[in-house]
């Protein structure tokens, strides 16, 4: 911010990928600089939300096609327990919650299915943390339903296929991140130092990046509302914005928009 302030008006934009035709609830904070030699006033970025798409919308034409499946991981060791998967929870946390809240029959079913599998240790760890109200970061896969969107795609938590007992393959992941099917992630010279899945996880979904580029063009074409401010903070999920001078902004310890 210190390096940019003399030459740019600065937008700090909080937004969700799911607002821009991405089947994901991932939140991002984006920083956009508007050159002062071009913009005399600060452009307000449009919320410009689209109808939200689901996992089913995105994968419907390839839902039963296992092409490229060699790059996915089989997770069928506890497939009988997938019925306990919940919105906003990873697989093992969902099962652990069902165990802690369930009757004796449910508890016995879960223990019988998970005992002796490679997920048993993770399950026991999560149960103990839930019982003691400890902070929990469950690294097990997240299994979304066809009628919902995935959680944030991170390098330590994989997405499971919504109807099959496996993680998503590369073509399906490209769909979720809104890359074209024919986009090539090959690295013939092996110059990338991290796995492709992790590289994708650190990126911004294509449609989300496209949205920001379109907003920049609107600003250049004079189509955006403008305000007198050096820094604007926008929460596009709530349709709110706050205006600051640069000095006011850097003194803030935190932002809360009610």
Notes on the protein architecture:
The protein has 258 residues and is of the alpha/beta class. It has two domains: 8-53 and 205-250, no CATH class; 55-202, no CATH class. The protein is 28% helix and 14% strand. Strands 2-1-7-8 form a four-stranded mixed beta sheet. A hairpin with a 4-residue loop joins β7 (231-235) and β8 (240-244). It starts with 7 loop residues before the first strand and ends in an 8-residue tail after the last helix.
- Tertiary shape: globular
How confident overall, as mean pLDDT? Answer: 88
Radius of gyration: 22 Å
**What series of H and E elements makes up the topology?**
EEEHHHHEEHHHEEEH
What is the overall number of helices?
A: 8
Largest sheet: 4 strands, mixed
Structural class: alpha/beta
Quaternary arrangement of the chains shown? single chain
Low-confidence stretches: none
SSE layout and pairings?
Elements: E1 8-16, E2 27-35, E3 42-43, H1 55-59, H2 91-101, H3 104-114, H4 120-131, E4 142-143, E5 159-160, H5 170-176, H6 196-202, H7 206-220, E6 226-227, E7 231-235, E8 240-244, H8 246-250
Parallel strand pairs: 1-7, 4-5
Antiparallel strand pairs: 1-2, 3-6, 7-8
Helix pairs in contact: 2-3, 2-4
């Amino acid at each position: 911010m210190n390096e940019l302030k003399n030459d740019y008006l600065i937008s700090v934009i909080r937004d969700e990928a799911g607002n821009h035709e991405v089947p994901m609830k991932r939140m991002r904070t984006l920083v956009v600089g508007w050159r002062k030699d071009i913009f005399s006033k600060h452009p307000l970025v449009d919320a410009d939300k689209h109808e939200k798409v689901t996992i089913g919308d995105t994968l419907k034409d390839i839902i039963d096609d296992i092409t490229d499946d060699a790059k996915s991981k089989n997770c069928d060791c506890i497939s009988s327990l997938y019925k306990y998967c919940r919105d906003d929870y990873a697989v093992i946390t969902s099962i652990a919650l069902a165990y802690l809240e369930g009757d004796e029959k449910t508890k016995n079913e879960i223990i019988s299915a998970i005992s002796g599998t490679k997920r048993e240790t993770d399950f026991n760890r999560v149960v103990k943390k839930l019982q003691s109200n400890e902070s929990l970061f469950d690294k097990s896969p997240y299994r979304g339903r066809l009628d919902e969107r995935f959680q944030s795609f991170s390098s330590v938590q994989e997405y499971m296929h919504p109807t099959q007992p496996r993680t998503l393959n590369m073509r399906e992941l490209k769909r979720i991140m809104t890359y074209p099917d024919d986009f090539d992630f090959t690295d013939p010279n092996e110059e990338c130092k991290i796995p492709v899945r992790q590289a994708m996880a650190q990126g911004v979904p294509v449609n989300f990046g496209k949205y920001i580029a379109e907003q920049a063009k609107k600003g250049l074409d004079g189509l955006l509302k403008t305000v007198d401010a050096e820094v604007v903070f926008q929460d596009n999920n709530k349709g709110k914005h706050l205006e600051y001078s640069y000095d006011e902004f850097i003194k803030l310890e935190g932002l809360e928009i009610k």
